[in-house]
Every structure is written in structure tokens, then in C-alpha cells.
Amino acid sequence: MKKKVFVFFPDGVGLRNFAFTDFKQIGENMGFDIHYWNNTVFSLKDNLGFNEVKIENHKTHPLTPLYLRARKHVELNVSQKKFNDNVYPTYKFPFNYNGLKNTLKTLYISQLIALNNSEKGIERIRKKINDLERSTSKYSYCKAQLFEHKPHVVFCTTQRASQSISALLAAKDLGIPTVAFVYSWDNVPKAMQVVETDYYFVWSDLMKQQVLQYYPFVKESQVFVTGTPQFEPHFDTTLLESRATFFKQYGLDVNKKYICYSGDDETTSPLDQYYLEDLANAVRSLNNKGYNLGIIYRKCPVDFTKRYDAVIEANKDIIEVLDPIWKQVGSMWNEVLPAKEDFKMLYNVCEHSEFVTNVCSSTVFDFVTHNKPCIYYNYEQPQLKKGIRDIGQNYKYVHFRSMPSDKAAVFCTNKNELEGLVQQILDGKLSNVEEGLEWFEIVAGKTPIKASETIWETIKQILK
């Protein structure tokens, strides 16, 4: 009998990895009966023809977000004390005191933190969250769906969505094994573990060690290193288009060499547009010296600001805008969902650019799989003032400590050095590819091309 697997999307962030890659096809080829348990507004049945069980009840308990916020703060406080490291407070978002309602919420959260500011306190908050979510109509609703469809396992595509808690509790209470995939390379140290499941799938040995380090209630036997499907498309050569075809499709000049500027979200890099401007100035200067360069600007898919517009307009002879092929299907950031065609676009942007530049993005790994270097900006902009976040703190985060050396990316620490670094890379005198590939292996594991297969093999192992 085929084993029925519920691939659970509590929100849209997992679609790219688990709906638009070959993940489903690989699982079906291995004999699994795959159904998508879908809590998103994106219809997998209508758009992709997948077997789908739609979750129509989206109600979390009104107190759950407050307890989750408190839990995150307490976990970061405990980490700061346990590891004697002041990086952890920098992961906290400031409290909101705008208006009476927000002020009351903040005071409630602050009281929860004060009363539970210890490892024992984390346990109390975890238990309270579970009790709250078990009391919701969504818990009963999901339990009924599971009872009707009787999956052998529930595979949750992200560990950080509050919408998944009641559904996973329902599965556990029915004795159905649950698995959570740890979604991103920076999530574990940032206290973004919202769900508690029977098993956890992680990208690498590094991430496994972090899960065990930060979450003492998780046993080693519960954590499996699988890799992530996120990078699999970069190894799919069927996505490759010729330079002439790709450039014609997007109106690029076949005589130019292009540098990709990969935009960031406003939280990570609030002055990101000025780094694009600096690159444009460097490119203009090099073009005056005989180079023939352009910039491909690929925005962050969840950035809807107009902050780049003036820079792009002032440099439209240099900057070509290639927006990611993502679609906004709701009002929240996690309801901006990628189209499958974006894999092909990103593959060819990587393949036909000389290198990428950005502020601390994981696109360093996308490009390094194509043997292309990456410049990280790490200097302050003159527009920086009180209340604006300095991008320098990004590089102090725990996930950047995974770099095997400071040569795993090309760091630009002074605006005046940017043109020289760009020129050295173009002339073949500077690269981070060798060290970048070493870093990629540390972060994404030894066999990134086989992540989907490894996930299904591990599910099979669990079910035995």
C-alpha cells in the first residue's frame, strides 16, 4: 500500500521549495501518495493540478501571537546569557506603543517576558501556546480533516509559521508522525522555531548542531540532515538559455557585460537604493575607461517600496530592471508567491551575469553554484541617521559565523574601493568562488542536488 503523505503549507514560503521544484515528482516516483494540505490562498489544484486538501479555517487563538512574541524574546534572552553573546538582542524587533491597543499588547508581552525569563519559563510558554491552540476551532477542524484523510505522516514545509501550530498538534494527538523542515539558513539562532514536531529536517550538519544547541528539548535522533530543494534548480541544465536568447527576451544589450544587483527587503537594508547608486557610479566610471557594462537590477520579491525609482530613472542607460516572476495573491509578505518560471529567470541571470552584488543576501550561494563571485556591501551610507538600521549589524549575525574565511565573499568596506573591486573581478584578478563553494557546502550540505530525494528517503525511513 502506498504511504499517504500530507505536504503541509501553513503559508506560502514553502511553495518555491516543495511545489515548484521536482520534489513532488521525485516522491511519486518513489511510491508515495502525495496530498498537499494547503493553508495558503494559492490553489495548488487549480494552478498545478495537485491533489489538495484545503484548510479554510485560519483562526489562531488571539493570545497566541502575544505568547509567541514573548517566547522569542525569552529564548533570545536565554541565549544571550547562556552563550555570553550580545548578538541575540539585535534579533529583537522594537515594541509598538502606537495607540492604546498596541500599548496594551506590548505591556502584556512585557509582563509575560518578566514572569518567564528562563528555560523553565520557555517550557511554560510553550505549554500555554499548545493549550491555547488546542482550544481553537481550527484545531478541531484540522483534526477532522486528518481523521477523514488518514495520512501516514505530515510534512510541514516551514518551522516558523504560527498557522501551523494547531494543525500539527491535531496530527500529533491522532498519533500521526509530524516533520518540520527548517526553512532558512539563519532561522535557528534567531529563535524562529514556532512548531514542535516529532522530527526536524535541516540543511546541513551545521544546522543540526544549532537545533540541538538552541532547543534542548529536541533529541539528536529527531534531527535529520537532508539539504534543501532551494538550490536544486541551479543544477538543472535544462533551464539554460543561450546568451542571445535570454538577452533578446529581456531587452538586454548582447555587447554589454552585466553585473547583477540583488535588492534587499527594507528591514535588512533600509538604504539599499544608495548601494545600487554606488554601483551605477562605479559602472559609469569604468565605462568611461573603455568597459561596456550594464546592471541587472533584480528586486527583493517582497519589497513594494518606491525607494529605488529615482536611482533607476537617473541611470536608465545603465540599469535594466528584471523583476522576479512572483505574484501577490494576498496582502501579507508571505502571500507573495513565486511562479515556476522564476527558476528559469534566476538560473539565467546567474549564468549570464559577471557577478552579483548585494547586502548580506543568500544570493551569494545562487551565484556561486554558477561559479560567479559576489560583492557584499559593508559600509555605512551618509544618509544613515538615528532610527535607521545600520546594515553592518547583519554581518555580525550568527549565520555569518559559518563563513570558512573572510574571503568567502568579496567585502566592500569603503565606497571609494567599489570601482576597484568591480574592475578586479571583471579582469579575473579577484574572486570568492573557491571559498564561496566551501561556504555553500557548510550551509547547504554536501549534496544540494539530491535534497528532495534525501527528504523522501528520510520520510520512508521514519515510516518504517
How many structural domains does the protein architecture include? 3
According to CATH, the fold-level topology of the largest domain is: Rossmann fold
Per CATH, the architecture of the largest domain is 3-Layer(aba) Sandwich
Strand order of the largest sheet: 3-2-1-4-5-6-7
Helix fraction, binned, reads 25-40%
Q: State the low-pLDDT regions, or none.
A: none
InterPro entries: TagF_C (IPR043148)
Protein name: UDP-glycosyltransferase
Organism: Mariniflexile gromovii
Keywords for this structure?
3 domains; 6-stranded parallel β-sheet; globular; Rossmann fold; TagF_C; 7-stranded parallel β-sheet; 17 helices; UDP-glycosyltransferase; 15 strands; alpha/beta; 464 residues
Report on the structure:
It comes from Mariniflexile gromovii. This is UDP-glycosyltransferase. With 464 residues, the chain is of the alpha/beta class. The chain has three domains: 4-60 and 136-227 and 448-463, Rossmann fold, CATH 3.40.50.2000; 64-131, no CATH class; 233-444, Rossmann fold (3-Layer(aba) Sandwich), CATH 3.40.50.2000. Helices cover 39% and strands 14% of the residues. Strands 3-2-1-4-5-6-7 form a seven-stranded parallel sheet, with helices on both faces. A six-stranded parallel sheet has the order 10-9-8-13-14-15. A two-stranded antiparallel sheet has the order 11-12. Strand 6, helix 9 (205-214) and strand 7 form a beta-alpha-beta unit. Helix 4 packs across helix 5 (99-115) and helix 11 crosses helix 15.
